[in-house]
Amino acid sequence: MRKFEDTYRHKGLRKKLIDSIRDKGITNERVLEAMMNIPRHFFLDTALDHIAYEDRAFPIQEGQTISQPYTVAYQTQLLEIEPYDKVLEIGTGSAYQAMVLAEVGANVFTIERQKKLFDLNKEFIFRKKYPGIKFFYGDGFEGLPTFAPFDKILITAAAPFIPPKLIEQLKPNGRMVLPLDNEGVQKMMRITKNHDGSYEEETFSNFSFVPMLKGRN
Ligand code: SAH
Q: Which residues form the active site (predicted)?
Protein backbone atom coordinates (compact mmCIF):
# COMPACT_ATOMS: atom_id res chain seq x y z
CA MET A 1 0.00 0.00 0.00
CA ARG A 2 1.09 3.56 -0.67
CA LYS A 3 2.82 5.28 2.20
CA PHE A 4 1.78 8.89 2.74
CA GLU A 5 4.58 11.05 4.06
CA ASP A 6 4.56 14.79 4.51
CA THR A 7 8.24 15.71 4.73
CA TYR A 8 9.88 19.05 5.56
CA ARG A 9 10.59 19.38 1.86
CA HIS A 10 6.89 19.02 1.02
CA LYS A 11 5.97 21.51 3.74
CA GLY A 12 8.54 23.99 2.44
CA LEU A 13 7.25 23.72 -1.12
CA ARG A 14 3.69 24.06 0.14
CA LYS A 15 4.55 27.23 2.06
CA LYS A 16 6.03 28.72 -1.15
CA LEU A 17 2.90 27.79 -3.08
CA ILE A 18 0.64 29.41 -0.48
CA ASP A 19 2.78 32.57 -0.49
CA SER A 20 2.50 32.74 -4.28
CA ILE A 21 -1.29 32.38 -4.11
CA ARG A 22 -1.41 35.20 -1.56
CA ASP A 23 0.68 37.30 -3.95
CA LYS A 24 -1.89 36.60 -6.69
CA GLY A 25 -4.55 38.30 -4.58
CA ILE A 26 -6.09 35.75 -2.21
CA THR A 27 -6.59 37.60 1.07
CA ASN A 28 -8.63 35.20 3.22
CA GLU A 29 -6.05 33.83 5.65
CA ARG A 30 -8.37 31.03 6.79
CA VAL A 31 -8.47 29.70 3.25
CA LEU A 32 -4.69 29.92 2.90
CA GLU A 33 -4.16 28.23 6.26
CA ALA A 34 -6.54 25.42 5.29
CA MET A 35 -4.51 24.82 2.14
CA MET A 36 -1.30 24.88 4.19
CA ASN A 37 -2.77 22.09 6.32
CA ILE A 38 -3.53 19.76 3.41
CA PRO A 39 -0.69 17.88 1.70
CA ARG A 40 -1.69 18.25 -1.95
CA HIS A 41 0.83 15.63 -3.06
CA PHE A 42 -1.31 12.96 -1.32
CA PHE A 43 -3.97 13.56 -3.99
CA LEU A 44 -1.67 12.98 -6.94
CA ASP A 45 0.10 10.04 -8.43
CA THR A 46 3.51 9.51 -6.77
CA ALA A 47 5.10 10.21 -10.18
CA LEU A 48 3.91 13.83 -9.83
CA ASP A 49 5.25 14.23 -6.29
CA HIS A 50 8.05 16.63 -7.28
CA ILE A 51 5.67 19.03 -9.07
CA ALA A 52 2.63 18.68 -6.79
CA TYR A 53 3.24 22.17 -5.37
CA GLU A 54 3.32 23.99 -8.67
CA ASP A 55 0.30 26.24 -9.09
CA ARG A 56 -1.37 24.23 -11.85
CA ALA A 57 -4.09 21.68 -12.42
CA PHE A 58 -3.08 18.03 -12.78
CA PRO A 59 -4.70 15.00 -14.34
CA ILE A 60 -6.31 12.48 -12.02
CA GLN A 61 -8.12 9.28 -13.06
CA GLU A 62 -10.87 9.11 -15.69
CA GLY A 63 -9.65 12.13 -17.66
CA GLN A 64 -10.52 14.50 -14.82
CA THR A 65 -8.37 17.05 -13.02
CA ILE A 66 -7.48 18.29 -9.59
CA SER A 67 -8.08 22.04 -9.85
CA GLN A 68 -5.23 24.55 -9.78
CA PRO A 69 -4.53 25.64 -6.16
CA TYR A 70 -5.18 29.29 -7.05
CA THR A 71 -8.59 28.29 -8.44
CA VAL A 72 -9.43 26.29 -5.29
CA ALA A 73 -8.46 29.29 -3.14
CA TYR A 74 -10.40 31.69 -5.40
CA GLN A 75 -13.63 29.67 -5.32
CA THR A 76 -13.37 29.02 -1.57
CA GLN A 77 -12.77 32.69 -0.85
CA LEU A 78 -15.80 33.75 -2.94
CA LEU A 79 -18.01 31.39 -0.93
CA GLU A 80 -17.19 33.25 2.33
CA ILE A 81 -17.64 30.12 4.43
CA GLU A 82 -18.75 30.54 8.02
CA PRO A 83 -18.06 27.75 10.51
CA TYR A 84 -20.76 25.01 10.31
CA ASP A 85 -22.09 26.24 6.96
CA LYS A 86 -23.80 23.41 5.13
CA VAL A 87 -21.98 23.28 1.80
CA LEU A 88 -22.76 21.22 -1.30
CA GLU A 89 -19.89 20.65 -3.73
CA ILE A 90 -20.54 19.43 -7.28
CA GLY A 91 -17.61 17.42 -8.70
CA THR A 92 -15.70 15.61 -5.94
CA GLY A 93 -12.85 14.58 -8.24
CA SER A 94 -9.78 14.05 -6.05
CA ALA A 95 -11.65 15.37 -2.96
CA TYR A 96 -8.99 18.05 -2.47
CA GLN A 97 -11.49 20.91 -2.65
CA ALA A 98 -13.92 19.05 -0.36
CA MET A 99 -11.19 18.77 2.27
CA VAL A 100 -10.29 22.46 1.93
CA LEU A 101 -13.96 23.26 2.61
CA ALA A 102 -13.93 20.95 5.63
CA GLU A 103 -10.73 22.62 6.90
CA VAL A 104 -12.38 26.07 6.83
CA GLY A 105 -15.15 24.66 9.00
CA ALA A 106 -17.88 23.68 6.54
CA ASN A 107 -20.20 20.72 6.88
CA VAL A 108 -19.47 19.25 3.45
CA PHE A 109 -21.68 17.24 1.09
CA THR A 110 -19.98 16.37 -2.20
CA ILE A 111 -21.29 14.70 -5.37
CA GLU A 112 -19.33 12.93 -8.13
CA ARG A 113 -20.93 11.59 -11.32
CA GLN A 114 -18.18 9.08 -12.15
CA LYS A 115 -18.47 5.84 -10.23
CA LYS A 116 -14.76 5.07 -10.58
CA LEU A 117 -13.73 8.35 -8.94
CA PHE A 118 -16.36 7.92 -6.26
CA ASP A 119 -15.06 4.41 -5.48
CA LEU A 120 -11.40 5.48 -5.53
CA ASN A 121 -12.19 8.09 -2.91
CA LYS A 122 -13.57 5.42 -0.59
CA GLU A 123 -10.15 3.79 -0.49
CA PHE A 124 -8.28 7.05 0.10
CA ILE A 125 -6.71 6.75 3.56
CA PHE A 126 -6.30 10.50 4.10
CA ARG A 127 -10.10 10.79 3.94
CA LYS A 128 -10.24 9.41 7.50
CA LYS A 129 -8.95 12.77 8.71
CA TYR A 130 -12.29 14.29 7.62
CA PRO A 131 -14.97 11.88 8.82
CA GLY A 132 -17.61 14.61 8.55
CA ILE A 133 -17.51 14.88 4.74
CA LYS A 134 -20.45 13.07 3.11
CA PHE A 135 -19.71 11.60 -0.32
CA PHE A 136 -22.43 10.89 -2.91
CA TYR A 137 -22.46 9.24 -6.32
CA GLY A 138 -24.91 11.16 -8.49
CA ASP A 139 -25.64 13.91 -10.96
CA GLY A 140 -24.84 17.36 -9.62
CA PHE A 141 -27.50 18.96 -11.82
CA GLU A 142 -30.01 17.28 -9.50
CA GLY A 143 -28.26 18.38 -6.29
CA LEU A 144 -29.23 16.60 -3.08
CA PRO A 145 -32.92 17.40 -2.46
CA THR A 146 -33.03 15.17 0.64
CA PHE A 147 -30.34 17.23 2.37
CA ALA A 148 -31.35 20.67 1.08
CA PRO A 149 -31.35 23.56 1.78
CA PHE A 150 -27.67 24.52 1.76
CA ASP A 151 -25.94 27.69 2.92
CA LYS A 152 -23.46 27.48 0.06
CA ILE A 153 -23.09 25.52 -3.18
CA LEU A 154 -19.84 25.19 -5.13
CA ILE A 155 -19.64 23.83 -8.68
CA THR A 156 -16.13 22.71 -9.65
CA ALA A 157 -16.86 21.83 -13.30
CA ALA A 158 -17.80 24.16 -16.18
CA ALA A 159 -21.58 24.62 -15.95
CA PRO A 160 -23.36 25.17 -19.31
CA PHE A 161 -26.09 27.14 -17.47
CA ILE A 162 -27.04 27.98 -13.88
CA PRO A 163 -28.67 24.74 -12.69
CA PRO A 164 -32.21 25.67 -11.55
CA LYS A 165 -32.47 22.80 -9.05
CA LEU A 166 -29.35 24.05 -7.29
CA ILE A 167 -30.84 27.52 -6.95
CA GLU A 168 -33.90 25.85 -5.38
CA GLN A 169 -31.67 24.01 -2.91
CA LEU A 170 -30.02 27.22 -1.65
CA LYS A 171 -31.22 28.88 1.54
CA PRO A 172 -32.42 32.50 1.32
CA ASN A 173 -29.21 34.63 1.46
CA GLY A 174 -27.36 31.46 0.40
CA ARG A 175 -24.59 31.64 -2.15
CA MET A 176 -23.48 29.57 -5.10
CA VAL A 177 -20.13 29.90 -6.85
CA LEU A 178 -19.77 28.40 -10.32
CA PRO A 179 -17.69 28.67 -13.46
CA LEU A 180 -20.28 29.44 -16.15
CA ASP A 181 -19.28 28.34 -19.62
CA ASN A 182 -19.51 30.72 -22.53
CA GLU A 183 -18.00 29.29 -25.72
CA GLY A 184 -15.20 27.38 -24.03
CA VAL A 185 -14.18 30.01 -21.47
CA GLN A 186 -15.69 30.09 -18.03
CA LYS A 187 -16.58 33.19 -16.11
CA MET A 188 -16.57 32.74 -12.37
CA MET A 189 -19.99 33.69 -11.09
CA ARG A 190 -21.40 34.22 -7.64
CA ILE A 191 -25.13 33.88 -7.13
CA THR A 192 -26.85 35.22 -4.03
CA LYS A 193 -30.40 34.03 -3.47
CA ASN A 194 -33.04 36.53 -2.35
CA HIS A 195 -35.86 35.76 0.06
CA ASP A 196 -38.41 35.69 -2.78
CA GLY A 197 -36.43 32.98 -4.62
CA SER A 198 -34.95 35.34 -7.23
CA TYR A 199 -31.18 35.86 -7.23
CA GLU A 200 -28.39 38.35 -7.83
CA GLU A 201 -25.39 37.59 -10.06
CA GLU A 202 -21.82 38.83 -9.76
CA THR A 203 -19.19 38.09 -12.39
CA PHE A 204 -15.49 37.58 -11.70
CA SER A 205 -12.40 36.40 -13.64
CA ASN A 206 -12.09 33.81 -16.42
CA PHE A 207 -11.07 30.23 -15.65
CA SER A 208 -10.81 26.90 -17.40
CA PHE A 209 -12.56 23.78 -16.03
CA VAL A 210 -13.51 20.33 -17.29
CA PRO A 211 -17.18 20.24 -18.35
CA MET A 212 -20.11 19.60 -16.03
CA LEU A 213 -21.91 16.68 -17.68
CA LYS A 214 -25.42 15.34 -17.29
CA GLY A 215 -26.21 11.96 -15.78
CA ARG A 216 -23.97 9.44 -14.03
CA ASN A 217 -21.16 7.42 -15.52
N1 SAH B 1 -13.23 19.47 -6.94
C2 SAH B 1 -12.34 18.60 -7.68
C3 SAH B 1 -12.19 19.04 -9.12
C4 SAH B 1 -12.49 17.91 -10.02
S5 SAH B 1 -12.70 18.26 -11.73
C6 SAH B 1 -11.00 18.46 -6.98
O7 SAH B 1 -10.74 19.16 -6.02
O8 SAH B 1 -10.21 17.60 -7.36
C9 SAH B 1 -14.46 18.23 -11.86
C10 SAH B 1 -15.18 16.97 -11.42
O11 SAH B 1 -16.58 17.17 -11.65
C12 SAH B 1 -14.82 15.70 -12.20
O13 SAH B 1 -14.44 14.70 -11.30
C14 SAH B 1 -16.12 15.34 -12.93
O15 SAH B 1 -16.31 13.93 -13.09
C16 SAH B 1 -17.16 15.95 -12.02
N17 SAH B 1 -18.45 16.24 -12.64
C18 SAH B 1 -18.72 16.72 -13.88
N19 SAH B 1 -20.05 16.86 -14.06
C20 SAH B 1 -20.65 16.47 -12.90
C21 SAH B 1 -22.02 16.37 -12.47
N22 SAH B 1 -23.04 16.67 -13.27
N23 SAH B 1 -22.24 15.92 -11.21
C24 SAH B 1 -21.22 15.58 -10.38
N25 SAH B 1 -19.92 15.64 -10.74
C26 SAH B 1 -19.64 16.08 -11.99
A: 67
Q: Which residues of the chain register pLDDT less than 70?
A: none
pTM (predicted TM-score): 0.97
How many other C-beta atoms can be found within 10 angstroms of the C-beta atom of residue 135?
17
Beta carbon of 65 within 6 Å of any ligand 1 atom = yes
C-beta of residue 206 within 8 angstroms of C-beta of residue 185? yes
CB of 136 closer than 6 angstroms to any ligand 1 atom: no
Q: How far is the CA of 196 from the centre of ligand 1 (A)?
A: 30
Question: What was the pLDDT predicted at 158?
Answer: 97
pLDDT of residue 2: 79
Catalytic sites, residue numbers: 67
Q: 57-207 falls under which CATH superfamily?
A: Vaccinia Virus protein VP39 (3.40.50.150)
- What pLDDT score was predicted for residue 61? 87
List the one residue out of 111, 105, 102 whose CA is nearest residue 156: 111
Residue 110 three-state SS: strand
* CA dist., res. 166 & res. 150, Å (int): 9
Residue 92 DSSP class: -
Q: Of 6, 31, 8, 10, which is closest to residue 21 (Cα–Cα)?
A: 31
Establish whether residue 67 lines the binding site of ligand 1, counting it when its CB lies within 6 angstroms of any ligand atom. Answer: yes
